[in-house]
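comment on this one:
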Amino acid sequence: MTPILELLLLAAIWGASFLFLRIAAPVLGPVPLIALRVSIAALVLLPVLRSARIRGQLRRKLWPLAVVGVTNSALPFTLFAAGALHLGAGFEAILNATTPLWAALIGALLFRVAISGAQIAGLFVGLLGVVLLVGEQPGMSHGAEPLAAAAALLAPVSYGFAVHYARRHLADTDPALTAFGGQAFAALLLAVPAVPLWPAHAVPAGIWAAVGALAVLCTGFAYVLYFRLIAQVGAAFAASVTFLIPVFGMLWGALFLHEAVTPAMLLGCAVILAGTALASGQWRRLVARRGV
């Protein structure tokens, strides 16, 4: 399979994660659902510990892996699951695309990463897209929807922090261990609160299927595919999956949940992705590649 096809496959899988969240979260509840997701994913990734070298890295990097487990898995996964109680899969997939915006801002504020004028412009453009997206959604002026949107928007903020923290503290760590450690520590963190929040009613088989797909396909397999892309063609190419996830998120939501794709969603998505391209440096690389 070519890198382009692998990138499209990864985007399709991660876009589907919002579909599975929308299906399973109302039945299981956000915390039990994500506890299952990260626990199963950790089991899928467990074979990485067969290597003595990786086990040695695990002992040396316990604390950084725990921080990444919270900020890159437990917290954002749970926030998106909470948002899925009231928001559509496509809507959340678009908000997820703001991750590079928050990464640029957090890098400048907390990690002393230089930020260019183009990145600052990208931040403003991207945030304008968020305003356009959220402001035009029905129900956002009342009820639980504004809180759900806030939760779904805090998730990429957490991702943005995790990107820089992992880069600073886990740069010399095997990516497979980072993937496993993040899921394992997230599972340990969520195990205790998941027990009292477990649903009292029976869980239908279809919900268990969604949980399995979310954990095995969208987490375990997707991480392996993502790190494979990084190894083959570099982080910049792999990171461009950000621009494709909203497309698949809206597509799966429309096909399987009959969610409407409104002009406001398309406009907000386009503006957010333009801001993301500026803030992440993808726009500059694209222009340089074309020789403009």
Observations:
- Residues 3-290 form one domain.
- The chain has a mean pLDDT of 90.
